[in-house]
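Sanity check

After download, print the first record. It should look like this:
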Amino acid sequence: MLFLALERSTGFLNRMCPRNRQSVVLRNPAQPVPASLNLAAADRNDVPVTRSRRQPELDALRGLLLVWMTLTHLPTHVSFYSNQPLGVVSAAEGFIFLSALLCGRVFERKLRESGPREVWKRLGGRAARLYGYHLLLLAIAFTVVAKIAVHTKSPSLEGLIDFFLAHPARAVVSSILLIYRPPLLDILPMYILFLIGTPAVLWVAKRWDWRVVLIPSLLMWVAAQFGVRAAMYSLTVKQMSIPFGALGAFDLYAWQLLWVTGLWIGAGRPSLPPLSWAPKTTVTCAAVIASFFFYVRHSFLWDVLNANSWAQLTDKWHLGSFRLLDFTALAILFSAFQPWFAKWLSIEPLVQLGQASLEVFCAHLLVCFATLALVGDGTAISVATEIAVVTGALLFLYLVARLFARPRKPTARPRRED
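Expected structure tokens:
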């Protein structure tokens, strides 16, 4: 559903991944192919090949998603307004998809130019660095946060590490193995596993075909809607006396579809032929779908869709089909209006937040831990305290971004590849 809909959006690939194959640009068959897009000529070194340029609006979008995520996780009244304001979609979907898209864009080219060993080395190093951050956050949660939780008897803090408080040794070992994933710390293990699996996905797609990756990914998402995660838990982790709730909220069997689709889009979405839908028709359909779910989110229909008979379709953790449809529509709209976003969204603070997205994400978890320890669930704090918490949190994230963000480089001229 997701990759077929994105395939029909001509503007999506032309803007998001402008540097790849001739098939990326959907053209009139009668129109001659420019020499700059002729791969045969490029292979003969007759024309220069343009390397991919970093698009600041994509970094800024990641920065905006991190701000959105932080406001949702902080225990303030702001979270009521920042929790899924656009429909049945949250910042997590956008963050995972966009990270995969940029990863596919960079490392598909790296695979062609330098081979699989270099891809394994680069992505393995990134996963190892993120795993180190995760261990540091776990250490803080199991020491500082646990001590405060025991001392204050705060339900907000105790709920974060209840399995650790009950079985500390088992919790430490299983968390190191990325099995036990406490609340707020459950997206990092998923991201790490996706990074580890990315070299194999890119290699299989290059060696055979992207269909070999996309079709099993879609089938795995379908299986996730029917409870494959619970079935696998009964066969494996349950034997370790780890409760199902300790595995974290995110269903990897479902969320892998977003990651794989993002990789495919970033790689230039080869293998599937262009379809005949007109761009305006696609954008119009996306606008209608996004508007419908926006209305649902802010009307009486929200309670209807969250009733037991409909909840599976909007479920965040299993990436329900309505949620996937809404996200697809919003992604198409973003691609259609990307020039506008590039003009108005690419402000330096957001760009820097996006460039240091992994470090900023980890920093926002520290902010959440500290805020929960100071104000609990936030129901009794004053407006002035809420303003101070939100302002201080965003300022801290910006300082972290300034520390880790890469300085912008001037756009390089196209050059010949040997």
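If your output differs, re-run the checksum step. Summary of this record's structure: Residues 142 and 411 are 45 Å apart (CA to CA).
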